[in-house]
Structures are given as C-alpha cells and as structure tokens.
C-alpha cells in the first residue's frame, strides 16, 4: 500500500527493496515473513494469484516461511503442509503485544513449527521483541496466542463495564483510575486502556476492535471443535460485535466503552 511504500522510501536508499507480489519476495529471499489481517489473507499470500507457491511447479528448496498473522491452528497447519510440500520450512510466530509494544521493540513472540527456522530467525525476533518462545509443533503457538487474546478481551470488557457503572453512579472516572492504579488490579494493559477511555481517545489505535473481535471469534471456533464451553468469551464477543455494528471499526478496542456507556 502507499503508506508502506512511503515508509520504505523514507528509509535510507538501498536498505529496503519493494516488491509487488509475495511471489517476487519469495524469489529474492531466504526467509519470508507474513503479517496480514486475517486467516483468509494469510492463505491467499501463499496459494493465491502470484502467491508464494501460486505457480505450478514452484519449489521453495529450503526457504523459510514465517507466518505472523493472528490465525487459527487449522489454517496454520494448512499453510505448513503447503510450504513443506514445496520443500520449504514453516514457522508460525504469533505476536503478543500492541502497537505500543511494537514501537518499543518489546513484543513477545510465540513460535511453533520448524525449530531450525526458529533459530535462524533469532536476530529478527530480537529486533521485534524482548522474548521469543518455541512451543513445539505447528498449532501450539496459534492456540496459545488465542488463549491470551481471550483473557485480554474479557478483561477489557470488565474494565469498560466498571468505568461505565462508575459514570452512572456519578463517580469521576479519573478518581476510579487513580485508585485502580494503587491496587493489585493495576497492570500495563488495563491501565493504558483505562487512560484511553478516560481521555475518550479511541482513534489512537493500538489494537483495532475488528482485530480483537476476530481473535475472539477464532477462539470460539476452537472451543467448538474441542466442545469446551466459554461462556464469558461468548458474551464478550457479542460486546465487541455490537460495537462494530455501531460503526466503531478502525477504532481501538477500548471503544467498546462508548457502546456500553450509551
């Protein structure tokens, strides 16, 4: 997209090369990193028109493919099989953290799949974050990531409902936040979200609501496969879904406060 091209052009000439398609990148690289919006786009990068293996007879011959999109375990396994069938190596590397952590280089990387590729990517992971975990076979990192997203999603709904109730009671949300920061409930994630809510600064996007709701849906899909009840997750997903219906796509996930308050 034009925004990415502008960022690349702003970097010193010669350090960044721009290619039009995933296929072009595959031809010129030993390791390919993919980070897009959803499972469908992730798969399209691999087998779609001009995808990494979108042409008959393509051989990856030891090249590495690292999928960093937040996806479901089955999609990751499908991509893994496609990459391996072409002679390549596959690693799912899920990102835990927001745009704030990305800017600070303090993301947590959850990886699974080809261990040799994980070791080859260490310098890249160190540039992105401060910790990278290898969790085993393909699927374990995607499952772990969805579990953590489930916890985040439910916690944020609880925070929002508490602040909305405080407002209805005539209690200053700033006072509640100041007290919140002194209790054992205080953590960087919830405190920062509370700051955004108090300031009504939902256009400062750290994790877009549509991405949070997508992860909640993928978690529920996984629970359906395992027949594991997730009552709180189901309810939280409806909160995010309703806020999206009200037109809050493109805003930070903390915007569910507006849906709850009004």
Automatic annotation (TrEMBL):
Start and end residues of each 6-phosphogluconate dehydrogenase NADP-binding domain: 6-136
Pfam family, one: NAD_binding_11
Domain spans labelled 3-hydroxyisobutyrate dehydrogenase-like NAD-binding: 141-256
GO molecular function: DNA binding; NAD binding; NADP binding; nucleosome binding; oxidoreductase activity
GO cellular component, one term: chromatin
Biological-process GO terms, alphabetical: transcription elongation-coupled chromatin remodeling
Domain of life of the source: Eukaryota
InterPro entries xrefs: 6-PGluconate_DH-like_C_sf, 6PGD_dom2, 6PGDH_NADP-bd, HIBADH-like_NADP-bd, HIBADH-related, HIBADH-related_NP60_sf, NAD(P)-bd_dom_sf
UniProt keyword Oxidoreductase, yes or no: yes
UniProt entry tagged with the keyword Transport: no
Keywords, sorted A to Z: NAD, Oxidoreductase
Sequence similarity: Belongs to the HIBADH-related family. NP60 subfamily.
PANTHER family (alphabetical): CYTOKINE-LIKE NUCLEAR FACTOR N-PAC, OXIDOREDUCTASE GLYR1-RELATED
Protein name: Uncharacterized protein
Native source species: Exocentrus adspersus
Lineage: Eukaryota, Metazoa, Ecdysozoa, Arthropoda, Hexapoda
């Amino acid at each position: 997209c034009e925004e990415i091209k502008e960022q690349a052009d702003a970097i010193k000439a010669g350090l960044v090369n721009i290619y039009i398609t995933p296929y072009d990148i595959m031809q010129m690289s030993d390791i390919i990193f993919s980070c897009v919006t959803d499972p469908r786009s992730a798969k399209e990068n691999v087998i779609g028109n001009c995808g990494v293996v979108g042409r008959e007879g393509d051989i990856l011959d030891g090249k590495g493919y690292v999928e960093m999109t937040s996806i479901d375990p089955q999609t990751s396994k499908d991509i893994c099989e496609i990459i391996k069938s072409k002679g390549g190596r596959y690693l799912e590397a899920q990102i835990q953290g927001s745009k704030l952590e990305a800017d600070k280089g303090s993301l947590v990387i959850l990886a699974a799949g080809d261990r040799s590729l994980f070791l080859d990517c260490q310098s890249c992971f160190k540039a992105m974050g401060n910790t990278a975990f290898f969790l085993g076979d393909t699927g374990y990192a995607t499952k772990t990531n969805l579990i953590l997203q489930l916890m985040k999603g439910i916690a944020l709904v609880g925070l929002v409902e508490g602040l909305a109730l405080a407002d209805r009671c005539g209690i200053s949300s700033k006072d509640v936040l100041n007290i919140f920061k002194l209790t054992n409930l205080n953590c960087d994630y919830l405190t920062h979200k509370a700051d955004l809510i108090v300031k009504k600064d939902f256009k400062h996007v750290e994790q877009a609501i549509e991405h949070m709701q997508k992860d909640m849906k993928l978690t529920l899909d996984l629970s359906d496969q395992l027949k594991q009840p997730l009552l709180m997750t189901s309810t939280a997903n409806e909160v995010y879904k309703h806020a999206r219906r009200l037109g809050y796509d493109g805003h930070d996930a903390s915007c569910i406060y507006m849906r709850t308050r009004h």
